Amino acid sequence: MIRILIVDDHPIVREGLAAVLEAQEDMEVVAEAGDGADGVTKFQEANPDIVLMDLAMPGTDGVEAIRRIRALDVDAKVVVLTAYDTDDRIFQAVQAGARGYLLKGAPRDEIFRAIREVKNGGSLLEPAIAGKLLSRVGDILRGGAVEKLTARELDILTLMARGMRNKEIANQLYITERTVKFHANAIYRKLNVSSRTEAVSKALRHGLVEA
Questions:
Q1: What's the predicted TM-score (pTM) here?
Q2: Top CATH class, 129-210
Q3: Of 39, 42, 72, 92, which has the maximum CB count within 10 A?
Q4: Which among 134, 135, 61 is positioned nearest to 98, based on CA atoms?
């Protein structure tokens, strides 16, 4: 059973989310909070597997709450569910340690998938969200914040962020699918990650350290 804490300042949103999540056989809402500070307190009390976090809240906002939660538990798993898709907010949330980022208009199945993916150690960003992070990632990588990626690796990372699969990337770049896999593995090795989304997240977090 996946134990979930919902942090959102709108009661009707919390109630709606709780209802759809509780309808899943493998999910249980163990606590709710109406602002970031209360979310941190409820995290300590309920010890959830997943925190479903809004960003814009009175008092302590979602980004600061993520930072505080991660300070308490570096392995805490936070999925952002918000109406905000601006570059700065996305960047700040990922830097703070969010492992997933979805917009409130996302289909409920996508929310379920994100919760399960993050619970199992993965991460999930909507393709549109990943795309907004891409220009910052390119600047970070080219600036030498991590082991330098080649031009071809950056090309492939760009297409990954657009949601393309290996076969589509191969067709786009006129290379074989095997070559795409080779370069993808090199990207993961250089960034010390195991997935496409983690590659984006790791690069951004590394950029924060360098800033």
A1: 0.66
A2: mainly alpha
A3: 39
A4: 61
Q: Residue 29 has which token pair?
A: 């809402």
Element (H, E) at 200: helix 196-210
From the CB of residue 83, how many other CB atoms can be counted at a distance below 10 Å? Answer: 12
Q: Taking phi first (over 0 means left), then psi (-120 to 50 degrees means alpha), and beta for anything else, what does residue 58 get?
A: beta
Cα torsion 43, 49, 54, 57 to 10°: value is: 0
- Give the pair of three-digit tokens for residue 154: 């950056």
Of residues 106, 27, 88, 37, the one with CA closest to residue 67:
37
Q: Which residue has the tokens 């979602």?
A: 62
* Numbered ranges of CATH 1.10.10.10 in the chain: 129-210
Q: Tell me how far apart the alpha carbons of residues 19 and 13 are, in angstroms, rounded to a whole number.
A: 10
Looking at the chain, which residues constitute the CATH 3.40.50.2300 domain(s)?
2-125
* pLDDT > 70 in the chain, percent: 84
Q: How far is CA 60 from CA 9, 38, 72, 203, in A?
A: 11, 9, 16, 26
Cα angle 114, 63, 190 (rounded to 5 degrees) comes to 65
State the CB neighbour count (10 A cutoff) for residue 173: 16
Topology (CATH level 3) of domain 2-125: Rossmann fold (3.40.50)
Which of 14-18, 91-95, 202-206 holds the top average pLDDT? 14-18
